[in-house]
Amino acid sequence: MEASSLRPEVRSLAEMKIPIGPQHPALKEPVGFMVNVEGERIKSLDLDVSYNHRGIEKGVEQRDFNQALYLIERICGICSHAHATNFAKGVEELMNLEIPKRAAYIRLIVGELERIHSHYLWVGVAGHEIGFDTLFMYTWRDRELVQDLLEIISGNRVNYAINCLGGVRRDLNEKTIKLALDHLKKLGERAAYYTQLATTEETMVDRLSGVGKLPYEKAKSLGSVGPTARGSGVDSDVRRDDPYLAYPEVPFKVITANNCDVLGRTIVRAGELAQSIEMTKWALENLPPGEIKKAPPRSAPPGEVISRYEAPRGELVHYIKSNNTDKADRFGVRTPTMANWPSVVEGLTGQNIADIPIVVAAIDPCLSCTSRTTFVDIDRHKSWVWNWDELRNYSIRWYKENKGIYWGD
Amino acid sequence: MFENLVKWARKKSPWILLFNSGSCNGCDIEVIAAVTPRFDIERFGIQVKGSPRHADVLVVTGPVTRQQASRLRRIYDQMPDPKYVVAMGSCGSTGGVFKGLYNVLEGVDKVLPVDAYVAGCPPRPDEIIDGVIAVLGMLESGDGRARSKRKDPIRIERKPLPEVTA
Amino acid sequence: MTDENPMLAVVKQDLGSKAVEVTAPRRKRMIIAATPETYRDIIKYLQDKMDCYHLSVLQGVDNRTNFEVVYHFWSDRNGMFTVKVALPHDKPAIGTITDIVPAAILYEREVHDLFGIEFPGHPDMRRLLLNDEWPKDEHPLRKDWKMDEKKFYGGVKSSTGGEKSG
């Protein structure tokens, strides 16, 4: 921790009443997070998202629909199918094109497998953030079963590109279905174990309760989505409320929790994991026969569409405008991580620095783990920069010394 | 020869620093998956850590967005010699699908000298381990030649680095 | 996809002349064209009477002849309501809605970055997506924007000066 004295003009900037953290011209380093602290208490928190801005929305305007599909898949590598499916179904709506039933089922199966892999990933990352590395290793080992399945179905472990305009690119045969059902059975048993661990094991519950509080009304007014909102009791899920693909036919429950904290979000994700495994099994067993794609027209008639999808992190919105060409005239994306960021600020303001890693991880952000964090303590004239490892180690040590919570990993 | 390299790696315990320069996170997940039990890069003595000051190999994912370019160079400058750079995936090599977008510099070699390119979108964890081991061969021999199983060792020319903003 | 939206007649009647046009492409989707004078009343109406508790996103659109700001509100019961406001190309500005919709705080910053539309009254208007070196009055998502070869947009400079673009 290097001490540095702040110049008067920086100090007066910091005293301005701005809800989300002032800029500090003294610290030119591009950082991920900027935290104003008073000792260990967080006064305000700001996030820099410019590091991940690539210019995709403009790029889609210059590519035709098929090329754009491959670019849009890589907006996020963890929910790549969510983005691709959302775009494909939006363009199909503009073209008035209805895809075959079998294609809708296959898209749903891959989508739910993606949710399974993403939630497994999250349980592991959450475990790693609180110092429970054994959980991280176990869940990521089991997650490999899902990755194998996705590779057999689509050809790639990540960025599956199973979609094409009008349907899906590859079909499932009997052998694949049997293998998938087999893996899902194993995954179901393991998921039940992790669910129990994450939601009832004493140390885990102690660690996660009361952290990152987000009351019901705030969750709604700040625009939170997905497990972050459902962990605060907001009963909303795009698959049930604005159905698409084959969701009207597949039986499932929307999981909510009333804890309004990180434990609530954990309970929701664990419940969704079990639900997704059941849904995938049902879809595989009831896969309708038929074609897997329909040839789309060359261009889309003029129009606009708002396509919504329940990604593992929450509501994903694509706004697509077409103008009688083979390209989108405007393509707007709103990722669920952006919608959940205000809830992180809400959950951390006034809290301890040691809570930052798990509260940020609890919205399951598509952020790089190599973010650096700048801390500024105005009153003590101190500022310092930590990388995420240092912040995590501080957090684990704090909870060990102050609350006796430690896994000894 | 490979066994000697593994013995050396276990003794020296080389550290990898993972840097995301604006990627979709696909490559990052596969690098982290390389640490987990199925692939287990740690059995080779390699560890993935977060600090540049002790890192030996810098693994860069992503097409390098404009915002990250100066930070990437700063991290590289903070690493002590000898240090090697692995450009991960098609984004790290040429910008990948993001080629032509306004906020992207299209490849790690626009900012740093790269010692190994690992192809894929994303590369599988075993391919990543292969790339890192090849670069570690360069680290061990210290002569800029990649000691992979290839019969013709690769010689990398170091061009002068372009100027980066502060 | 051609099923009717049951709320269309109700909304048309309630809004009267405040809305320039109300259309419903299908169930659970409605588009309301508003003016800079009436959009706030319409948004308050949607929040109070149509149970639109959730702002999904607000976005900018460049239609070449004018700009548009589109607000997408979601109600579990009544579906998605899109409020569109047309703005002139010259000095486009529309008052902030962060006082009645706190969730808009980051989205308005994004539209400002990419289109240059002002939101007077926004409590914290700073850059969100573009890096610090990006020129002040260049807004990349405008249809008439082209990258200027001679300017520097952030990232690396080649040793001969000027910017290194893809």
Structure explained in plain terms:
The complex is a heterotrimer of chains A (409), B (166) and C (166). By secondary structure, chain A is an alpha+beta fold. Chain A has helices at residues 8-14, 56-61, 65-73, 80-94, 101-129, 133-154, 174-200, 202-208, 216-221, 226-230, 238-241, 262-285, 336-348, 356-362, 388-403; strands spanning 33-38, 41-47, 163-164, 167-168, 303-311, 314-322, 328-334, 372-377, 382-387. Chain A has a domain at 8-51 and 338-403. Chain A has 15 helices and 9 strands. Chain B is an alpha/beta fold and 166 residues long. Chain B has a single domain (2-141), classed as Rossmann fold (3-Layer(aba) Sandwich). Chain B contains 5 helices and 6 strands, in the order αβαββαβαβαβ. Mean pLDDT of chain B is 80; it is low at 145-157. Chain C has 2 domains: 8-115, NADH:ubiquinone oxidoreductase Nqo5 subunit (Beta Polymerase, domain 2, 2-Layer Sandwich), CATH 3.30.460; 131-166, no CATH class. Chain C has a 5-stranded mixed sheet. The radius of gyration of chain C is 19 Å and the shape is elongated. Classes of the chains: A alpha+beta (409), B alpha/beta (166), C alpha+beta (166). Chain A binds chain C through residues 18-20, 23, 30, 49-50, 53, 55, 57-58, 93, 96, 98, 220-223, 225, 235-236, 241-242, 303-306, 308, 315, 317, 319, 321, 330, 332, 334, 338-339, 341-342, and chain C through 1, 25, 28-29, 31, 53-57, 59, 61-62, 70, 72, 74, 76, 79-80, 82, 101-107, 114, 123-124, 126-132, 140-141. β6 of chain B pairs antiparallel with β6 (156-157) of chain C.
Strand order of the largest sheet of chain B: 2-1-3-4-5
Task: Describe the strand arrangement of the main beta sheet of chain A, using strand numbers.
Answer: 2-1-8-9
Q: Could you say which structural class the secondary elements and strand pairing of chain B correspond to?
A: alpha/beta
Strands of chain B, count: 6
The number of helical elements of chain A comes to: 15
CATH class of chain B: Alpha Beta
Counting helices, strands and paired strands, the structural category of chain A is alpha+beta
Q: Tell me, briefly, the overall form of chain A.
A: globular
Query: Nearest-angstrom radius of gyration of chain B?
Result: 15 Å
